[in-house]
Amino acid sequence: MKNTTIDINESTIKKYVESLRPENLEVRKQVDIGYSFDGKVVILFEIRPEWDNPKKMQQIDFAKIRHYKSKKKWNLFWMRASGKWEIYEPFPESTHLGKL
Known about the structure:
Elements: H1 8-20, H2 25-30, E1 32-37, E2 41-49, E3 57-68, E4 73-79, E5 85-87, E6 93-94
Antiparallel strand pairs: 1-2, 2-3, 3-4, 4-5, 4-6
């Protein structure tokens, strides 16, 4: 029997991303939402075709959530046009991932 562990944080992230994704599969071909999670950093990104090569898909990061184990807090960041991450001022941190 295989022992599987469910990561409650990844489950929360997956549920949130699924709520953002378009239901229509044709729309998803034009714009979709995805995420990556390594245990302490979540990157949310948009998936869409490149403007000059529609057959090639690109991922555009728009939000980052980072867990600081020593502080027991999650911080929320947004991607500036310059490509730098900046703390999201209206609601920058929380002790619970679901609140961000």
